Amino acid sequence: MPRTLISLIPLLLLACGGQKPPAEEDAQALAQLQGELHQANAVIDSLNYTVDTSNQIIDGLRAQVSSLQKVDARLYNSVQALSAELRNWRTQADEQQQRNQAMSAELERLKKEQRTDKQTITRLRREADSLNTALFEANGAIHRQMDQLDQFRAELAQARGEVAQARAATSAAETAARQAQLAVHVFPAGEQFLREQGYLEAGRKMFRKSYKLVKALDHGDPHLRQTGIGQPLELEGDLKALADRYGRLREGNDYSQEKLEGRVRVTFTNPLLQGTEVLAVVGN
Fold first, then answer.
1. Measured distance CA(94)–CA(176) in Å, rounded
2. Which of 40, 203, 217, 239 is in Cβ range 3.0-4.6 Å of 264 for a Cys bridge?
3. Nearest Cα to 46, choosing from 16, 18, 19?
4. Which residues 6+ apart lie within 8 Å of 34 measured at CB?
């Protein structure tokens, strides 16, 4: 075998040997490295074939040396050395091929892990997107519920205000009604006017003139006055009489009066007069 083959063996060994790439290299680098390993395995197979052929040649040379016994000892020693180198190369080639196979398996594992990692990342991204979507939807639902709560609060506050106003109005109305029930409703006017309006019926009993309320008073009339029992009520003019639907009231029992200049101060004292209508017959 020529010496150039021997000199090429270390180069081929260097070409066949590879440095293990880091696990984080991408799929393209892994595929390229796997292709190079396939090429190295092909070279190793070719060299193994060459070794087998060289062994056959060596066996032939040995047969010739043994038969002729005229071969130079130097050539024989060279053939023996070449045979040893070839055996050494065969051992190294087998070891390298095993390493290449192990590296190929490692590359396949890395590829599978990379595909698994990509699938895991894709799944996690989908889950994250789904979770983010659910969070946004929940956030929108919470804001809508908060808006509804604010609206309910406003409506409740408005309803409370309306109820308070209604209670106040009812209370005022009840108070007014109660005051109206307890008040004495007095309509002061002259005798002629009262008779013309149909309120007063006048007559004479024994030695005294009688008066009687015969028609319900108009509570919308601005001349109608209200006063409570024990509260003084001032009337313009001179008081001739006070009368309800039962007749003329009695001074001292039903009321008291205090004459002032151009007017009179009347105070009702009989509790039975609460809520009644009374005519005050006044004159100039």
1. 119
2. 239
3. 16
4. 104, 107
Total-model pTM: 0.41
Which 3 state secondary structure label does DSSP give 283? strand
239: nearest Cα among 189, 192, 187, 281: 281
22: tokens are 């880091």
Model confidence over 47-106: pLDDT tens digits? Answer: 777 777 777 877 777 766 665 555 556 666 666 777 777 777 778 878 877 887 887 788
Could you tell me which residues come within 8 angstroms of residue 227 by beta carbon, excluding any fewer than 6 positions away?
A: 183, 184, 186, 233, 266, 268
Helix ranges (H only) for the chain are 3-16, 27-68, 73-182, 191-196
Q: Is the dihedral of CA 140, 146, 150, 155 positive or negative?
A: positive
Q: How big is the chain by its Cα radius of gyration, in Å?
A: 66
- Least Cα distance to 111 among 185, 21, 27 occurs for 27
Residue 211 identity: Y
Question: What are the beta bridge partners of residue 280?
Answer: 188, 242
CA distance 32 to 40: 12
How far apart CA 255 and CA 267 sit, in angstroms, is 6
| Separation of alpha carbons 51 and 95, rounded Å | 15
Are 283 and 194 within 8 A, CB to CB? no
Q: Would residue 161 be called left, alpha or beta, if left means φ above 0 and alpha means ψ between -120 and 50 degrees? A: alpha
Which residues, 6 or more positions from 259, have their beta carbon under 8 angstroms from its beta carbon?
A: 238, 265
Q: State pLDDT tens for residues 10-61.
A: 444 444 454 445 555 567 777 777 777 777 777 777 777 777 777 787 777 7
pLDDT at position 57 is 76
